Amino acid sequence: MIVLDPTDESASAHREAIARPATLDGARVGLLDISKPRGDVFLDRLEALLAQRGVAVRRYVKPTFAKPMPPDLRREIAAECDVVISALAD
Amino acid sequence: MPDFPRDGVVAVVKRDCPTCRLVEPVLAQLAGVVVYSQDDPAFPPGARDDTDLAASLALGVETVPTLVRFAAGAEVARTEGWLRPAWEELTGVDGLGAGLPEHRPGCGSRTQDPELADELLVRSRGHTLASRAVELTALEDEAEALFDRGWSDGLPVVAPTQARVLRMLDGTSRAPDEVVAVVPPNLVPVTVEKVAVNAVLAGCRPEYLPVVLAAVEAACTDEFNAHGLLATTWGAGPAIVVNGPVAAEIGLNSGGNALGQGTRANSTIGRALQLVIRNVGGGRPGGVDRATLGHPGKTGFCFAEDEAGSPWEPLSVSRGVAPGVSAVTVFAAEGPRGIADQISRTPDSLARSLAAGLRTVAHPKLVMGFDATLVVCPEHARVFAAAGWSRADLEGALAEALTLDPAEIVRGAGGIEEGVPAARATAPLPKFRPGGLMIVHAGGGAGMFSAVIGGWVGGAAGSTPVTREVRP
Amino acid sequence: MHDFAALEARGVVAAFCASTEFVDASAAQARALGYREVPAVFVPHPIQDRTDDETRALADAALDAVLAAVTTGGPAR
Q1: What span, in angstroms and rounded, lies between the C-alpha atoms of B368 and B357?
Q2: Range of the domain at B37
Q3: Nearest CB to B145 within list C31, C32, C34
Q4: UGSC-like domain: from which residue to which, for each copy (chain A) (predicted)?
């Protein structure tokens, strides 16, 4: 479907990632394990590295990497996190 | 452009049309006629394929069969349907269609087919649109995609397809590339077309577009100061009151629930203005819009004045527009709040009631800052009409009742620290600046409930209501 | 990518880590969802047969890119 841009067209016509915070200070950060092998090890280390920088994280696990996350998990993360990093797809 | 003969005759037909089939032998009789077939290139034998309707559109065919004569590259004659004398005259051949009836009406051209209307509209006029075309991908849900791009105020919007925008533009005689206004806060020039795109998003019908255009013009003036209204932490937004014949023509509600939901024109015209400010001007909540609370009418706030039932001249006429001319007045508005008075039967008592409600605008102890609009309901207006009060009489009575005792409004009075500084509270002070109270007549026939619509800081430092005529 | 789009639509800043094998696939999926590019951090393929130490080393190497993908102000202190 083609639609006409209602804006002043100064921004990209593509979808853009939403605005990033300057730093993770004070942000509620989540790490999402998509349930592929080695992802947990990778995320454990990332959690430790972030902790060294004073950033605490919440951990989430998606039931299977093969499907988008179930609505419950999506709601949970959206309610509890400002920032989410998922790993590890290959 | 199809390859029409410089000198000669063109016929446009379709197999689906009984009259076209009837004249097949006539076309066979007319050597040299170029026949275009809209639906079946094999009908009649030797026809040119016009299933894409390019030739039909170029000729503006509305009926089949259509016969057109060209001379020196220009059309010089045309006939539709089957009428023997007309065909004989146009082709210069006598004795056509022996055995056929003298006359048979034609059928609708496929270019008139409603199923093809959008496609043909875009094909014939899509190139006139200047707005960037954005392709939504197959995996995107159409409604979600429009939210994701930030084009919505939080409610679903109508996808601004080229066909919808072209139909919207049919609602005005103004050229699509005409600049309507420069939209704050980013001061972006907005064309008629871009307003039309946002009017589609908002859910407007094409006939609303002239009202939307006038509202955008009015809201983007220095006097209205949409930038300041947006940027203030105060929660008011632009509202539109419509006067004149256009209101009834497009179905704007001035009666029961005029300030509420349920009327498409009311709900979508105000929304279109707000979407122009959001999408074109870049004025968004959390961005330039710093409202502490805002109010639900900031999604869109538009209603018509009930002129027929009003004891007074239309608001637009009071504001300098000729009687009978449609106009919009844009003003800063909070949400409306009712004032009940089911007892007063004299205009003086009722005016004092309404004044008591108006006194609370912004704060009961603050004066001369905020403007307001009073919407007088029919059952209240009846009391003033019976007493022969003009709008000016009511304004005068309200001004008198709203001349406040400094002892009541000085800071600290009534145990409330807010109020007028002691240095200013030396004499009675008017609640509203001159011209800071606007009176409109609207509402259902039953209910002695008028409404106060608080505004924002009035005058040069804030926002002044602006009236603009609605141009077709 | 669908998770990314779903989270961002709900106001959650999202980024994902994937192996370099995933570069083309994620770009194609991003385009199909209307994005030109998305914040992704790619680590060298393969993943699944890495030892724990090797995997932790991948995380060490990826940290700055991860922070850059979810912030504008560089590494957190």
Answers
A1: 16
A2: 8-112
A3: C34
A4: 3-90
